[in-house]
Amino acid sequence: MSSSMSTTKxxxxxxxxxxxxxxxxFIRPLDDRPNLQQVQSSDVSIxxxxxxxxxIIQNIRYACQNYGFFQVxxxxxxxxxxxxxxxxxKEFFHLPESERLKNYSDDPFKTxxxxxxxxxxTEKFANWRDFLRLHCHPIEHYIHEWPTNPPSxxxxxxxxxxxxxxxxxxxxxxxxxxxxxxxxxxxxxxLGKHGQHMSINYYPVCPEPELTYGLxxxxxxxxxxxxxxxxxxxxxVLKDGNWVAVNPIPNxxxxxxxxxxxxxxxxxxxSVVHRAVVNCNKERISIPTFYCPSSDAVVGPAPQLTDNDxxxxxxxxxxxxxxxxxxxRGLSEETCLDTFKN
Length: 342
Description:
This protein is of the alpha+beta class.
């Protein structure tokens, strides 16, 4: 099928039924392909933390220092809320093309939008992903923009967003304590008025998954990401130079610290490069919640974590400055932290 066909469909989910090969604009150079046969399994590689267990702070410290990623069980989010969120997400991406496209925009400043790839205006290679991006804190500022189809979308997603905010705040308090800071330091001192948004990612079946990515390797620009996955593998984390598959465990969330935690911790904790791969058998849905500072919040190393032996490694900056740098650079580089180093 000619690659010109790919220009007639805006979204990958609508393109997929018209092609039996990956169109040329999705094909990565030879040295930038997933090498799927070299990926390790995460069964013993990513810490699993019981949030109703013992030694939570020590376990979080260990995970953040050594992995930048961990999974959480007994997190307090009702199974019914998780199931409704996943169900309504699948229903949205299975709506007719004309219905979904009512939400389409390639304007990154729109606070509710359906789009594809990562940044269609700047990137050299497209990614095998569609996504619905929603801003969700404060919910009352944004819920009127969200889709009304499926009919339960706003109600189900709002309930999930509230649960995610509660979990994010708890985890940030525990991360703060694990750094030796006051429990409320990150939540009260580093985030300004707070921001929260989410992405409902849809990765269609791909005819040639070895040639492309759902998302290439990158570190997250925010503070903390809480990921809900369906039962299809796709998330991979870079650990000691090797890609490790984070296989889904029912009713758990996968948590990773973002660039802002690396800055606040003055490099005690590192945000970790991760990616999403696709497959030729099953569609996949993943739903990351991104908790972040408000755009005007000033971020820098926590003063309590700097001294003569540990000078501040980063200058202070606004989150808006950081995020704009991240967005304009796209995923051509894995992180933009170096731009803000002292």
